[in-house]
Structures are given as structure tokens and as C-alpha cells.
Amino acid sequence: MSSIKQVIEILASSEKSFEDALQRAVQTLSSSVPNITSIYVKDQSCKVRDNRIVEYRITAKVSFGTPVEEFDMTDIERTFDEMPQPAGNGAPDYSHLDLPTQPDLPTPTEPENGSATEPESGGGYSG
Fold this sequence. Notes:
The chain is of the alpha+beta class and 127 residues long. It contains two helices and three strands; from the N terminus they run E-H-E-E-H. The protein starts with 5 loop residues before the first strand and ends in a 46-residue tail after the last helix.
């Protein structure tokens, strides 16, 4: 039997420890996300002030199962609505943007007669 899990990425912090940051994340998230099954710590970092650790930070992926009751995905879906819609081939559709199709290249000029080292031709040393 197979199962489908949903995964979201979160950031959490604590002034005490990494473990406290994780526990706070699970407690806070559990009020809006049902059936949390696991948490994978992707990154850890600390904020330092005056040579002392003042904040422990984690980036984690939280897995949760199929909701047993209706789950409000409004905040999660909002970020997907703001993304460009994919075209038929899966690539983002940027057709609504006015993008230049030709590069802005310098226009070629005809060289003038003269030497690159003669002041009359714009070259050489001034003096």
C-alpha cells in the first residue's frame, strides 16, 4: 500500500537551542497543519551578537499526511497563484511581458582616414 505525503518548508528560531526551535515549529504548525508525520532539518544557523549566540535558526521540511478534515490551503496556494502560469510544455509563460527580442548593440561606424596615434585622428598622446 502506498501513501501520499505533502511537504512544506518552514523557518523557525529560538533563543534557547535548535531543539527548542524545532519544537516551537511543530507546536505552531500543528494548529493549522493536520497529521504532521516527520520533520527534516535542512539547515541550521545561529545569529551572533557580541561574540555570543543569541538565536538558533532552522530551515526544515515538514511532512504531513492526507487531512482527516477539510484543510484550508489558501495561504499555500496563494504563492502558486503569483507564479507565472506554465505554457503547454511546462515552461513558464512570459507572453504578457514586453521583453526585447533583439540585443542593443552599438551601431557600426565608418573608420576615418588617419592613424590611431595621430592627434588629428583622435588618437595619440595629448600634449
